[in-house]
Each structure stands twice: as C-alpha cells, then as structure tokens.
Amino acid sequence: MMEICMISTTILDNIATHIQEVVLHESTRSKILIGQMNLAHYADIAQLMNSLESEYSVKLFLLLKPEMQISVFYELQTALMRTVLSALNSADKSNLLKNSHADQITDLFDLLSDEELATCLDILHKKDREQVLSLMQFAPDSAGGIMNVDVITLMQNFTVAKSVALLPRLRPRRDLHRNIYVTDEENRLVGLIKLEDLLLKSPETQLRSILRQVPFIAEVDQDQEEIANKMAHYRTVTAPVVNEHNFLLGVITGETLVDVLQREAQEDVHKMAGSYVSQSYFETSSASIILRRGILLVILLLVESLTSVILGSYEATLSAFLVSFIAMLVSTAGNTSGQTSAIIIQGMSSGDINDSNINKILRREFFIGFSLSILLALVAFARVYAYHQFFWGSVVVSLSLGIIVFASVLFGSVLPVLLKKFNIDPAFSAGPFLATIMDILGIFIYCYIAYLILN
C-alpha cells in the first residue's frame, strides 16, 4: 500500500512539473502520464488540481476517464467545481450528474446560481430531478441535507433467497453497506440485518424473523454535529434517516460521517480563533479574511483598552515591583482559561459532557480550579519572596494569582455551558474572546488586591 501511494505521488509530481506538455496531450510522455494519472487515487488527483492554475486544472480534468471525473469532481474546491462544470460540454455534464448520488448533486446545487441550477436540472432524468428537489428542502447541515438516498434497503416480508437474488441487480446503481435497513410495506423502518445474515440463514427465512435493533436513528431535521456525535457514541458507521412518521428517507454513511467530523472540527478551530468563515481558506478572498479578522481585532483592541483605564485608576498603588508581574499574571490567566474551555468544549462536542452530567462536571472543575489556585499561589509566593524578600508584595502577587486562576477556571467552564444554553456554539467562548475577558478581570483583581493590602 505504501509503495502504491509513493508511486501515485511521483506520477502526480511529474504531471505538475510538465503540466503544459501534459495538457496539450501530444507527446508520448504526456500520454503515458495521463494514463498513469487515471490509475492514481482520486483524492490525490483532486489535490493536484486544487494546487494548479484553474486553466490547467480544467484541461487536466477533461483528460480523465468519465468514471474518474465523477470521483475527482466532488473533491475539488468550490470555485474550481463551478469552473470545471461550466467548461464541460452537455454530454460530459450529463454523465457527471447522472452518475452522481442525489446528495452529492444537492450539495453541488447549493453552490450554483439560478441559471446554472436550471441548466443542470434540465439535464437530469425526471426521477433524479424530483429526488434532488426533494433533498434541497432540507438544511445543508441537517440529516436530510447530508443523507444518501441511493442505498439498498429491503422489505421485511422478503426471504433470504429473494434478497440475495436482488442484490446483484441493485448493486451497480445503489450503495451496499454491511448494515442493510429493512422496512415494512409502507416504507417504515422496522430494523436492520447484517450482510452476513444473508449468508448464514436458510434461503426460506423471512427477514422479519432475523431483524436486529437499529442502534441509532437520525431524524431528518437533526443537526449533523449531533448526529456525528451519536454515531460515534453508538460506534455505528451508518445511520438511517426517518421523518416524523418513521418513513425511511435515506442513510448517513461512514464516509459522510468522516466529512462531517472533519468540517465540524475545522469550524470549531476557526470559531475558537474568532475567524470563522463558511468557505475553505483558499476559497475565501483576502479582502474578506482581512475584514473579518480586522473587525474582531479592532473590537478586542478597544475592549482591551479597559486595562489601561484600570491601571491608570490604580497608578498610585502600583509600584515598579508590582508592574513587573503583570505579564506573568495575565499570561497565566489566559493559559488557565484556554486550557479549561478547550476541555469543556471538546467534551461537549464529543457528547461526553451533556445535560445529564453538566452539574457534576462543573463541580469537579471548581474543585480542580480551587486546587490549582492554591498550588500556583504557593509557587508564586515562593518564587517572588525568594528573589525580592518583600513579604507583603509576595502576598499580593500570590493571592492575586490564586484568585485569577480560580476565576479563569470558572469562566472557562461556565461560559461554554451558558452559550450552549442559548444555542450558540460553545467554541466561540474560547480563544481571543475568553483571553480578553481574563486580561481585563485579571488586571482588576491584581490592582484591587494591591490597593487593599498595601494601602
């Protein structure tokens, strides 16, 4: 496997090096490279095309075999997908759309203009067009928006023999998974069977007699992040999607699960950094990035100016000795709050922290915060007093640090929970937002304690 991956990478590197020669497709070397490219993994080919100028990417895409085009197309960046689609002739466009899953087409159509959408819908068969239009009514980040409708399902009154006879006929047009969902005559979900059940049971056995319980059933309007967490919790690689009447609408596959987890993780990282954008990095214009990040930084800059106001108010109290420890206190507050919020947010994201155990988690974090505050306060007192031999100054620094650490744990654990209560992504509570709050609060605590003790 490792050797195959290395060969694939070498081929694609050669194509990138001789891209002008390859897209002309006239020399013997270019024809050999194109033939080898069609044997590479579609994800590697898409990565190559995403790195090239769009002009070369389109020409390279047209040199792929039709079946490879379908796999590569849905791995391309959004802007490049639109460029490639507009460059295809009617026959190639028809082949691409008619051989794509309905959920893939639905995701694609969310990116197109009204004119492009109308053109593509005209190409699809009537049945496929109705299927895509029905999927487009669901939110893109809901179960209905990410489900796959082109999967094999069976009816409970089928025998094992009939089911085995049907699979080869359905397999070329629909996806087959190890878990095969079973419905009644009205398409209501009644259970599942394993693929191996069809091999181990007698041919006359009806499926209703060997049904297994479905570990997790997704509701059509359920959020994709919640679904991903539930699937991970129940350790299932597929999940059926039903409506309010338990009618089976589609299936969320393991491949979709991986995509959702990857997108949600990327979103959380951007939200924690305060720079969330709905598109990928290279698909977002520099002006848009500058505007979003610039506005946030300006707001935080203005809010941070409150620390100057606080320091100015306690200027008479703060000696050069006390000022020298401000950076230490502020950085400790940021580190502690960031550490705590990251743990809470990750637990909420994975489902380990939920409404049933949140009070237990918060009590535990408060105890941890109290313990850490005592530990760090003692270390700070020892460090300051050993170097400066100033008892009351050491008390001010260590006491302030202890209170700041406890406050950091308090805010880092409670703030994500409060945001979750108001249906706001807890990831927004981390990063620069929480750090700014703790900067201001930490400076105030430090100045006020110094005023109480030294004055």
UniProtKB/TrEMBL annotation:
It is a multi-pass membrane protein. Its main location: membrane. The keyword Translocase does not apply. CDD domains: CBS_pair_Mg_transporter. Acts as a magnesium transporter. It comes from the Bacteria. One of its GO terms (molecular function) is magnesium ion transmembrane transporter activity. The chain crosses the membrane at residues 295-314, 320-345, 366-385, 391-419, 431-454. It is found in: Cell membrane; Membrane. Keywords: CBS domain, Cell membrane, Magnesium, Membrane, Metal-binding, Transmembrane, Transmembrane helix, Transport. GO terms for cellular component: plasma membrane. This is Magnesium transporter MgtE. Belongs to the SLC41A transporter family. The keyword ATP-binding does not apply. InterPro entries: CBS_dom, CBS_dom_sf, Mg_transptr_MgtE_intracell_dom, MgtE_N_sf, MgtE_transporter, SLC41_membr_dom, SLC41_membr_dom_sf. Homodimer.
